[in-house]
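Q: I'm writing up a methods section and want to include an example of the input and output format. Could you take the sequence below and give the corresponding predicted structure tokens, formatted cleanly so I can copy it straight into the document?
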Amino acid sequence: MIHTPNVTDVAGMFSVLIAVVSILHQVQSVQFISYDMRLLQNNIQSVSTSIQLLRHSVHRLNVDVVLLQEVWHPAEDIFNIWQYTKPIVMLHQGSEGGGVAIVTHRKVKVVHLLEYEVDGLEAVWADVMLGKVGAVVGSVYVPPGDINVINILDTYWKNFAVCLQVVDRNGC
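A: Here is the clean output for your methods example:
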């Protein structure tokens, strides 16, 4: 018998997270993330082995922005989701594991923020906009016990009125 995951299964497997919006400093007339912008965050531990469930989940849950950690060097021809843009990926250098990614639905306007990438930090950043509502989002991996990464992230938070950070922090 084949088991088709339902929404409860998928939510449990993927730890669906709407995430925390950090309001960094007061700015008048700023629109914040709409309740209609849906985000999914997951430490996927290999896109190659989890792509079918990821595809099913983002379509079933109608996700707009996907933030992933530990994508583990997926083959380019595997890491695609129908109706979604090509992933913005930063792979962990010198190792088979790690890597982070941001994937957006085609209706979301997205700009990869290359200027915020830092050597030694596994993070990707993008300016996303759905309708007239936008934010800067980042998918970040923090290795176990690496408090210095948190200090590096502080520099990002000072630059934006609204910044959504999704961190897989593994015991920090």
